[in-house]
TrEMBL record:
Residues 698-707 have a biased composition (Basic residues). GO terms for cellular component: cytosol. Belongs to the peptidase M3 family. Keywords: Hydrolase, Metal-binding, Metalloprotease, Protease, Zinc. The lineage of its organism: Bacteria, Pseudomonadati, Bdellovibrionota, Bdellovibrionia, Bdellovibrionales. This is Peptidase M3 family protein. Its cofactor is Zn(2+).
Length: 707
């Protein structure tokens, strides 16, 4: 093993910082390899202590010890994978194969160690005689299942094959993700003539000019994939809309960064792994531990959505196509026309102007608003701490989070909100640098939580203005952030968002409901120039359009869910092309064909490298849950103290320490109402009893009904 000077490596020998936060300003690419080697050696030594402990296996010396073992590697793993998403570089991306080759074999070898498993199994088999808390029982079950899920029960040749598949999957997933990042960076849209930007908000045009100037393209305008949405919504130039849409849809479809072969590698490996583990398809294996339990439940759920949404979506699209024809004589309506004419149709239908609305949503005020909302709902307090904690970019904001009742600090929150072309992945996400729970010394540690977005950075001196959708994104990601910040469990692996994929979006999506409530809007919607609060007349228009195009939006998400399930269930031997797979789902669940060579699958990061494989349906599944939960607040009070405390206690604080269905029932007092979402969207009649169902009088036997 290579010798390094560990004393200057901030990952190995971190400076003393409040709450042990990482020294993000000091971490450099060259620090990662020696840190991985250093902590891997420590991890192996700690593993040997557990494996060869002469004492009889106990929950404390085996299960809790394994939980602490995860914490040894966590600082460097967390820093590395976070840096590759928000502070990446060519050198960091080139390191990905080395990291995969180091970590995957180590993890598989540990989880296939029969001596170690025997200690775990001894405790698991005796679990009925042990005086364990519910949380301890959950950790024991999770640990035991983790070994089974990594092939410990397989014969020797099966174990070898499982490791081969796992290593190949890790490499293919990393390849898929890197291809997307590199392709997006290599193909920005450069505009030479400002006339092509007609209709696009001035502040956005200024941001495009600034992005171009940063790349040495003074006098031009650079439109990255992350900043392209305003072109599609407001851009009058149809050719530019086509360029932008095509660039996005043709991402990783050809050339150096083509993902076609990578997709086939991934689905083939996943099927092989599922078959090896005794499952018919990868979807069967992935869903076996989720709320839905099996593909049939998911497909029935999505089919029900399809039937509810498609007729409304077709009606809506027909109106938009007619508008395009009547306004501009467009008879060959294309996907890149939809957002533009849909925006015009919405403006006419509700006498509302999205650009006018944006003037009331500065990023700074929206952040104050979402934090004020969280403070009222959960009795916590955010305090800005600029300069207190090291950050990786000067635009990153930091906050201390305290419990109002006890005065104790419960977390540190980082917010990274602006796009950085070539340095940061597209999209919006929450991540955890560290979950709540016991540390290596058995002391409770506070969580370090991150929200990332890709809003367009404004020109110098101008405020960042958000669209309604972007405001919703802030509330959504803060919901995930609160899930991490409020965790109170003892074990980091069970805290925060460590829950099933079809439950993880409930804590995020339910927060969206508050964003556009009149009383909440008035806490953060102030005009960027005058400071005037948003007028009631404009709020009424925003609320009136609340369910606008609900059928179209619902069908879109249903299509994504079905495309995911198709890929996770299909036999790779029957795939003639990725385009054919996608077209087959489009024929059933979408309204427009693919545009040219464009497609969704080659850049569908959620379901290939991401953790949403056979889980994308979870967004709509969790929408049912969040509609049901919010109806309870609407029937009582938006900031009812008891309801807020109950929501915090039963959902946000518990993380994955209980089964998801039990957490939902603990808060609602009953199983989910399967009609809650369609009712909220105006696709079913209102129910006077919604959100106020009677408490269950006895524990339900059998599986929880699908929402």
């Amino acid at each position: 093993m290579t010798t390094h000077d560990d004393t200057t490596n901030p990952l190995i020998n971190p400076p003393a910082l409040p709450h042990g936060v990482p020294a993000f300003d000091r971490i450099k690419t060259e620090h990662f390899k020696p840190a991985f080697e250093h902590f891997l050696a420590q991890s192996q030594a700690a593993l040997d202590e557990i494996r060869f402990n002469p004492d009889a296996p106990t929950f404390e010396n085996t299960i809790e010890a394994l939980e602490r073992l995860d914490g040894i590697m966590h600082p460097v793993i967390s820093a590395y994978y976070n840096f590759t998403s928000f502070n990446t570089s060519k050198e960091l991306m080139e390191m990905s194969e080395w990291v995969t080759n180091l970590l995957t074999p180590h993890h598989i070898a540990m989880m296939q160690d029969e001596g170690l498993f025997e200690r775990v199994k001894t405790i698991y088999d005796d679990r009925q005689n042990l005086k364990l808390s519910t949380e301890q029982k959950t950790l024991l079950k999770k640990t035991y299942r983790g070994f089974l899920g990594t092939g410990i029960h397989l014969p020797p040749e099966g174990k070898v094959r499982f490791q081969e598949i796992s290593e190949a999957l890790a490499k293919a997933s990393e390849e898929f993700e890197q291809n997307n990042i590199k392709d997006a960076e290599a193909n920005p849209i450069i505009v030479d003539d400002i006339a092509q930007l007609d209709g696009i908000p001035k502040d956005v045009i200024g941001a495009y000019a600034m992005a171009a100037e940063e790349k040495g393209l003074t006098g031009k305008w650079l439109i990255s994939d992350a900043a392209s949405t305003p072109v599609l919504i407001y851009g009058k130039n149809r050719d530019l809309r086509a360029r932008v849409h095509t660039a996005g849809m043709e991402q990783s479809t050809s050339g150096t960064y083509d993902n076609h072969d990578t997709i086939m590698k991934i689905i083939t490996l996943r099927k092989d792994q599922a078959n090896l583990m005794g499952f018919e398809t990868y979807a069967h294996m992935a869903l076996s531990t989720r709320m839905a339990k099996n593909p049939e439940t998911v497909l029935n759920f999505l089919d029900r959505n399809l039937k509810a949404y498609r007729p409304r979506a077709e009606e809506h699209l027909n109106r938009i196509q007619k508008l395009a024809k009547d306004m501009d004589g467009i008879t060959d309506f294309k996907p890149y026309d939809y957002a533009y004419y849909n925006n015009i149709n919405m403006q006419r239908s509700f006498n509302i102007d999205n650009q006018e609305i944006r003037q009331y949503f500065t990023l700074d005020n929206v952040l104050k608003g979402v934090m004020t909302h969280a403070e009222k709902l959960f009795n916590i307090r955010f305090t800005a701490t600029d300069g207190k904690y090291p950050v990786w970019n000067k635009d990153v904001k930091t906050f201390d989070v305290h419990d109002q009742k006890t005065g104790k600090q419960i977390g540190v929150f980082y917010g990274d909100y602006f796009a950085r072309s070539g340095n940061k992945q597209d999209g919006a996400w929450m991540n955890s640098f560290r979950n709540a729970g016991i540390d290596q010394d058995g002391k409770q540690q506070i969580p370090l939580i991150l929200n990332c977005c890709n809003f367009i950075k404004p020109a110098h001196g101008e405020p960042a203005l958000l669209s309604l959708d972007e405001v919703i994104t802030v509330f959504h990601e803060m919901g995930h952030g609160l899930h991490g910040l409020l965790g109170k469990g003892r074990y980091p692996s069970l805290n925060g968002t460590n829950v099933t994929r079809d439950f993880v979006e409930l804590p995020s999506q339910v927060q969206e409901n508050w964003a556009l409530e009149k009383d909440v809007l008035k806490t953060y919607a102030f005009h960027k120039d005058t400071g005037a609060v948003i007028p009631d007349a404009l709020i009424d228009k925003i609320i009136a359009k609340g369910n606008y195009a609900a059928g179209y939006a619902g069908l879109r998400q249903t299509f994504f869910g079905l495309l995911d399930m198709e890929w996770q269930m299909i036999d790779p031997a029957n795939v003639t092309s990725a385009e054919d797979v996608e077209d087959s789902v489009i024929a059933r669940a979408w309204l427009m064909p693919r545009n040219g060579n464009g497609m969704m699958s080659t850049s569908f990061g959620h379901i290939f490298p991401g953790g949403y494989a056979a889980g994308y349906y979870g967004y709509k599944w969790a929408e049912v849950l969040d509609a049901d939960v919010f109806a309870k607040f609407k029937a009582t009070d938006l900031y009812d103290r008891k309801l807020g405390d109950d929501l915090r206690r039963h959902i946000y604080e518990k993380g994955g320490t209980r089964q998801a269905s039990n957490l939902f029932r603990a808060f609602m007092g009953r199983n989910p109402d399967p009609d809650a979402l369609l009712r909220r969207e105006g696709l079913l009649p209102a129910n006077d009893n919604a959100g106020t169902a009677p408490q269950a009088t006895q524990k339900r036997k059998g599986p929880t009904p699908a929402p």
